[in-house]
Amino acid sequence: MLTVLLFIINFIIIFILIKLIVNKYSKYKINKFTIRNDSLSRKRQTISNNIVIGLNIIYFWLLI
Predict the structure, then answer these.
(1) Any stretches that span the bilayer, and where are they (predicted)?
(2) What Rg, from alpha-carbon coordinates, does the chain have?
(3) pTM, entire model
(4) How far does CA 25 lie from the centroid of its chain?
């Protein structure tokens, strides 16, 4: 039971860290190029969210 709890806590921590890194990087890129098109901004956010989800799935598979 303790190992399951540790896996869940590790998964949440890694998810939060990856989300913060991707968020910070995407904000930097958007501010650097001053994107005014909302659809392009949404596409970038969708891509970054998909990357985070993919990394979380890979991390989860590594835990098992």
Answers:
(1) 6-25, 46-63
(2) 15
(3) 0.40
(4) 11
- Coil vs helix vs strand at 57: helix
Is 13 a domain residue?
no
pLDDT band at residue 34 under the 50/70/90 scheme: low
- For residues 9 and 43, the answer to whether their CB atoms sit within 8 Å is no
Q: Which residues contact 19 (CB under 8 A, 6 or more apart)?
A: 52
**Count of C-beta atoms within a 10 Å radius of residue 54:** 11
Tally of domains within the chain:
1
pLDDT band at 30 (very low <50, low <70, confident <90, very high): low
Q: Which two tokens stand for residue 42?
A: 């949404």
Long-range contacts from 2-6, C-beta under 8 angstroms, 24+ separation: none
Q: Cα 5 vs. chain centroid, distance in angstroms?
A: 22
